Amino acid sequence: MYTKKSPTRGSCSGHLVQLLMTFILALWVSAVHAEMKIVAGVLQEADGTPFVMRGVNVAHAWYRDKTAQSLTDISARGANTARIVLANGVKWTQTDEREVKTLIEQCKAAKLIAVLEVHDTTGYGEQAGMATLDQAANYWVGIKNALIGQEDYVIVNLGNEPVGNGQPSSVWIEGHKNAIAKLRAAGIRNTLMVDAPSWGQDWEGVMRTHAASVFAADPLRNTVFSVHMYAVYPTDSEVNSYLSTFISAKLPLVVGEFGDTFQGQAVAASAIMSRARQYGIGYLGWSWSGNSGADTALDLAINFNGNSLSTWGQLLFNDTNGIAATAQRATIFGGSTTTPAACTLTLDTSGDWGTSQVLRLTIANTGTAPINGWTVSFNESHDFSIQSSWSATFAQSGRSVTVTPAEWTRTIQAGSSVEAGMQISYAGGRPVPGNVVVGGAPCGVVIR
Questions:
Q1: What region does 313 belong to: left with phi over 0, alpha with psi -120 to 50, or beta?
Q2: Dist CA 258 CA 241 (whole Å)
Q3: Which class is domain 343-447?
Q4: How far is CA 260 from the centre of its chain?
Q5: With contact defined as beta carbons under 8 Å apart, do 440 and 433 qualify?
Q6: Strand partners, 385
Q7: Can you give 148-182 as a three-state secondary structure string?
Q8: Engineering a disulfide at 87: which of 92, 175, 216, 279 sits with its beta carbon 3.0 to 4.6 angstroms away?
């Protein structure tokens, strides 16, 4: 039997103090554990919102004076993430704790989630003079004061492409398990990122086979895997085969690096973006600027100029599955950055007669303001020759076509559309346009 009693003033005050302390403790615990996390194979923010990375790699360790402006320009293009090259001092000049703190604040100011990576591990075992994963782990522990408390904003990429070709699988497996244990023991709770072996491309299948055991070795179960897709992934078939394996296993994955070409070899960049969007997988293009030699084509911005995108930059940012059309700002920064489509581009190839074809290009302005100037570029799937065109200039280079408007089709008023076209001849397979990039306005693409 319960008998209700009237508390004395003293006991009431004591209960109030106890309740207040319990409430403050609950708030403190909540704050301590406000961090990104993996739930059922999906990276989530502290509030439970899925976070899909859409961003760019930034070569900070080699171009320190360019980083601040680069981050501003990358954010202005709609990205929600920047993966930043750091160095632990084994191969390149160390990025110290104070510098890392500055980088994190610069990313916050630009409303970008920061993925920080140690680049000195690249190709270890095959490339001489590179750092081990244990040396990378020691670096992270040494700068842990820059990381602790930033769990909502910072993902720690343990080591870039940390194992070269032909190395024992245990180098990757045990190296990461030990590194994860060392960081967790040091109190680092940030989401961790693990790069694939074989220079990040995992063509030997080590990460695909052993990712689950590495994930299980993290006591927080807060590790995401990263594959770098270059020449090993020339078609949609290879891309889909790899990505779908992780989706089926409910293991978190991002494409941490990729390009549209690699030293003259084809890379299925459009398929990577399309499949990533289909599966809800993040992707980070390599890289903003500063590549040299055979890799110069991988620059997204020409000479670090945010207003001058390369062909690769146009594709990554402006493709129908690109950053501008699909990126969502992290909720901790206030949410969406995606720019609504202001137009619809239709490429109609239904007029085809086996050896000739008429391609009709229509751009409809679905926005509320005029479109003053536009360009369209695309690649055809098979060889062809342009015989004639109208209402625009269709410039051919191999299988690539760049379209610029005539004076009377340059401006498209709100609610209106313009049409242009070309007639082509061909002898082999039927040409089908792909890798479509629209300049001048965010635009949805329809191919018929």
A1: alpha
A2: 16
A3: mainly beta
A4: 14
A5: no
A6: 425
A7: CCCCCCEEEECCCCCCCCCCCHHHHHHHHHHHHHH
A8: 92
Residue 412 CA to residue 365 CA, distance in Å, equals 6
Q: Which residues are catalytic?
A: 161, 257
Residues in the chain: 448
**Of 152-156, 181-185, 396-400, where does mean pLDDT reach its minimum?**
396-400
Backbone φ and ψ of 275, nearest 5°: -70, -35
Instruction: Name the one residue in this structure whose structure tokens are 């980088």.
Output: 103
CA quadruple 117, 108, 55, 316: dihedral, nearest 10: -140
Cross-strand bridge partners of residue 81: 55, 113
Three-class secondary structure assignment of 209-238: HHHHHHHHCCCCCCEEEEEEECCCCCCHHH
Q: What pTM does this model have?
A: 0.73
Beta strands in 23-169 (DSSP E): 37-39, 42-44, 54-58, 81-86, 113-118, 154-157
Q: For tokens 């072996």, name the residue.
A: 197
Residue that is written with structure tokens 């410039």 in the block: 395
What is d(CA 378, CA 333) in angstroms, rounded to the nearest whole number? Answer: 35
Question: Cβ of 163: how many Cβ atoms within 10 Å?
Answer: 33
H helix and E strand count, the chain:
11, 23
pLDDT band for 436, please (50, 70, 90 cuts).
confident
Who's near 40: CB < 8 A, 6+ residues apart? 250
Q: Which is nearest to 67 in space by CA: 103, 93, 116, 32?
A: 103
- Whole-number Å distance between alpha carbons of 442 and 448: 20
Return d(Cα 126, Cα 8) in angstroms, integer.
76
Handedness of CA 371, 375, 380, 386 (dihedral sign): positive
Q: Are 381 and 403 in contact (CB under 8 A)?
A: no
- Topology annotation, domain 35-333: TIM Barrel (3.20.20)
Residue 249, classed as helix, strand or coil, is helix
pLDDT band at 145 (very low <50, low <70, confident <90, very high): very high
Could you tell me which residues are beta bridge partners of residue 161?
Answer: none
Question: Where does the pLDDT of residue 438 fall: very low under 50, low under 70, confident under 90, or very high at 90 and above?
Answer: confident
The ranges assigned to domains in the chain are 35-333, 343-447
Farthest CA pair distance, the chain: 97
CB 231 within 8 A of CB 266: yes
**Interior/surface letters 386-410, b for 16+ CB within 10 angstroms, e for the rest:** eeebebbebeeeebebbbbbeeebe
Find, among 305, 323, 319, 295, the residue nearest to 52 by Cα: 323
